[in-house]
Amino acid sequence: MPxxxxxxxFIALAGGRDWLQARGAAGIQPLLAEADCSVLAVLHPGxxxxxxxxxxxxxxxxxxxxxxxxxxESAGAVxxxxxxxxxxxxxxxxxxxxxxxxxxxxxxxxxxLQGRAYRSWADNYVVLLGEVGQVAVRRAAERVSHDGAxxxxxxxxxxxPRARRPAPAKRLWxxxxxxxxxxxxxxxx
Length: 189
Known about the structure:
This protein is of the alpha/beta class. It has helices at residues 17-25, 34-40, 51-58, 62-75, 108-118, 134-147, 168-183; strands spanning 10-14, 78-80, 86-88, 97-104, 124-129, 150-153, 156-159. The chain is built from seven helices and seven strands, in the order βααααβββαβαββα. The strands form two sheets. The chain has a five-stranded mixed beta sheet with strand order 1-4-5-6-7. Strands 2-3 form a two-stranded antiparallel sheet.
């Protein structure tokens, strides 16, 4: 799956099957621009916000925000109330956890570096190791544990990933890339 940063070997969506189905049923094209996700991430489905509040929360000028809001409204991602406030389409609120999996036969250090980059948008990463020695497994486990990430070797789980969340806008950006990948192919669920 092409992601916001890098190309993980595998992606796992845990507990988000209903989100993926609702996202597809919404009929909204994937929103892959980081700016779009920055705006959407400050919106809520149940609470409409004024343009001024959105601009302040995103850190943009109202002039920079208006074309993005207009585009998102045209796409069906944002609803505008009769009073001029905005709320996000509920189908765009991520549910579940996305894990980026990086498989390496030997170079666990490269897998950890790649996994750390994926954590900018994924809930966490897991390194999948092939047949390596005990010293390599121990060193990889130390690095991965420090990150709160996961390590899986040929003998099973060495370190299980801990729950974490990236910044809301980056997380939404990752979920939108996941949706784009599944909209173009049939994922293994």
